[in-house]
Amino acid sequence: MNDLTFTIGHEELVIRQRWEVVSIINDILVAVWFIIGSILFFHESTTVAGTWLFLLGSIELLIRPLIRLARRVHLTRIGRGRSASDSDEDY
């Protein structure tokens, strides 16, 4: 088996961790908006508010790939491109 070795500088590691935290917070917000929106659909009087929260959750879903793109651009600007530790499934 071939082992893959790579080195990540301190600055790059800090940037990756910060963007990961932003992504996690975004994912939590998506869940919160959809859960609250779902609860609001149980009563006809709160359906409009539930609909707005579903729209907000959908917008948050769009923000996820934008976070990944911003992280990639940020790393490229400091001289780091895609490294062996990146994958298409990361935050």
UniProtKB/TrEMBL annotation:
For this UniProt record, give its keywords in alphabetical order, as a comma-separated list: Membrane, Transmembrane, Transmembrane helix
Q: Which residues cross the membrane?
A: 21-43, 49-67
Occurrences of domain YrhK (ranges): 17-72
Claim: Transmembrane helix is one of the keywords in the record: yes
Indicate whether Transmembrane helix appears among the record's keywords. Answer: yes
Instruction: Please report the name of this protein according to its UniProt entry.
Output: YrhK family protein
